[in-house]
Design a protein that fits this description.
The complex is a heterodimer. Chain A has 20 helices and two strands. By secondary structure, chain A is mainly α. Chain B contains 21 helices and two strands. Classes of the chains: A mainly alpha, B mainly alpha.
Chain lengths: 485, 480
Amino acid sequence: MLTPPDVAFLPLLPILIVLAGAISSTLLGFWVSRRTLTFINLGATVLSALSLGWLWNRGLTAFGGSLIADNAALLLAFVVLVGTLMTLLVSLDTAWRARVSFPEFDAMLMYAVTGCLLIAFSGDLIVMLIGLEIMSLSGYVLATLQGSRRAEEAGLKYFLLGAAGSAVLIYGLAFVYGATGSLNYAAIAERVGSVQGLQPQNAGILVGGALLLLCGFAFKVALAPFHQWTPDVYGGAPTSVSLFLSTVVKVAAFAGMLRVFAGALADAPGWHSVMQILIAATLIVGNLAALRQTNFKRLLAYSAVAHTGFLAMALLGTPQMGGAALSYYLLVYTLMTAAALAVVAALQRSEAGFQISDMRGLYYRHPGYAVCLAICLASLAGLPPFAGFFGKYLVFQAAFQNGYVWLSVLAALTSVAALVYYLRPAMLLFMPDRTPAREYAHGQRPATTLAVALGVAGVTVLGLLPNLWYGWGASPFIWTLLAGR
Amino acid sequence: MTFTDWLPTLMIFLPLVGSLLLLVVPKTFRDEVAGFFAALTLGVGLAIWRGGGSELFRWDWIPPLGITYSVQLSGVSLALALVTAFMSFIAILYAARRIPNPGPMLSLILAMETGLIGIFAAQDLLLFYVFFEDALIPALLMLAMYGKAGRMKALVKFAAYTLFGSLLMLVSIIGVRYLGGSPTFAMTDLKANLVDGPAQAWLYLGFLAAMAVKLPLWPLHAWLPDFHEQNHDSGVPDVMGTLYKVGGYGLFTFGIPLFPEASLELRPILMGLAAFTALYAAWIAFRQTDWKRLLAYAGLSHMGFVALGVFSLNETAVIGAMYLLAFQNLYTGALFLSVGMVQDRIGSLETRVGGLMTQAGALSGLTMALWFASIAVPGLAGFVGEFSILLGAYQVSPWLTFIAGITTIAAAAYALTAFQTTFWQARPRGGVAVRDLVHTEWLVLGLPLAVLILFGVYSAPALNLMQPAVRTVLAALGGN
């Protein structure tokens, strides 16, 4: 007997709105200017964010649980949309300079966001994979769109390594299916949790699957040693694209990891210890490599790697603590990284960003941008009263309380290196300088400034009153239901 | 909720309000506004003192994380907050005249004052950490904006050391609450849920890492001389730097009550380190030819004394340590400003200038009196502190106290030698004419000296303020 498919459009609403933006960019691109499209997409993003609020606490599902709009999904989707909003604002001003000012840019961006939202809303591995592939493929195009040697190299690297990562991921997915007989998170979690559901000979397959999944995700979020593409891609792509890749795409990949590891495979054996090692390696490699960078954009790329280590620590906490910590950290990370890269996008002379030594005395030339950048760097470094501090604090706490004391200590120690490399540019900004300016002369534009202001205001307000966000996200119920149980 | 409950909060955030206001005030009124806010803060502090200290004020800041905004200014914390407010006022008084385009500097001084008073007022471990880091940012910016050629290295060193310690402390803080099972980070809750066993010792070490850097304690002191040497010549940032020595205070307020067994266990080692720091720093100070480095090492030596007092866990010694901590900020701060004045006149920080006394009698005289306070001449506040520390620590460990005691002789040696070669001796031929004190400079050196003499002769008000607080803290040790 054939059962009719469970199609509900209501929980899909945020995704559909973004998708509508993407499709309209594709079609309307023939008739209207790109700026108009960007405004349409900005509207779509805001509408989508509003629809998230509307879905709050309803716990709707579609496609028989393959797509779930629970509160966890909504929180993560909100973070994705915040990053998208900032990317769009920055691209309004800089896309023309970066020679990516054609409708395809907007279309690809919005397709990527659609994929990101799908991952956040995913209720089974297939939806997650579809979202991940939509996101990745659009990402490869975005990275290459500029048509310069650097961008092509970045895009090709991203594509080759990303494809390898996807392949590993799909293989892992097949293993997990083989071991548990299901692709649905809830069903997997149930079989993994109960001994009867999982025969002993399947346990090995499950461990293998979990580890392959971990590898695949490690590629996507840039955990060491799978991080090597990051600096080249983030450094080589146009700055607005780097902004997008290092915030939105990473947030989405972490949303997937949260669903899979803290939800479906939470009780699976084996992956915890490997994850610990990967995190430790990421913290060490990311922070130490960033110390030696002379290009600010590359520095931010390595800092993104280092932050991956911190973010992943949240996955080692209990789902209740870790999920809440991760959602807060992701939001803060998006705000501060995006704002820092927005400043770079506004002031850089070429798409290579600028050298750290060029930042000397910026405060005396562009005081507003310099103060904002300094605040972002302080927040990235985890100095209170900015929100980066509470982000760091929360992941330390999540890992510590779940017994990973050594990892918390290691994270604290590697943070010292982080402080040094954030501090150097931050302090250079305020040092008096008599040499001629090395910024793009016409760098101050309203939309980029708005994006920077949004980031800095967010980081400051969330730092002083973390409860504004954490009060929503801290409820343990949100995160125990990750697997849709 | 009465008005007096709000006084500590007012005292903490008044300077920050002033600091932000300075950004929009027209240039002509900047000095006055900065001075007004600094004076007002001091006034609020004095009002709290008159009222006999404030009660604990508590507000749930981030309920899901158990972080509270708990502040209290009484006893030791009030004394240190008062000193901070007083010296910030002096620093502003001087910076306004001395530094060209002083706007950012005045703003940073006020911002730092907020962080510092917050450190002393915080009665919540995480709030303490927040203020602890907050005070760092203006200090770094002062160095970046007004420092000398080698500042980048000094800056990175300073930040790396400080944050190395404080991040370990952060892990400890998380551990103290989690392993003890306390519902919040407020001190009252933490004290009711102490961690015991070997975990306590490990957590204490993490906490100690931050405090030892700030104190600073050998071997974590290397940032200090560079920090002072590379700062602006006026000495204003150095004043704020000396106020930043919260290590002794942190160990006293948080270290002893939260880790009583560990502090007893580690007492001999820590006292040894402290005594060594005092002597070692005095020895190095003897060889310095730069006034700022000399003062930096002198300060380090004093901090060795403070540490000796705190680690000895003896009532007399701890009171002495807190007394010294408070007044060391006064005389070392004033001395940094006096060095700045000398630099302003002759353009050098060299200790072998010669003959300043002949032309600038008042400057030399006041400086000498301040140095006397620094080397603990009786009748000045430094003596009360050092003597109490030695008296108390002797009852715990005579030999280590003897070693630390030698420092007082060494101190006299380095201070007087440097003073002699700068202010006495013959003025070199062709040296510039040296102007004596003018305008507010009299106040800048005179006011701290007056306070030092007052509390050197009549120490009862300060001791009465500190003694109950010290007794309460040491009661945590259970009669040891």
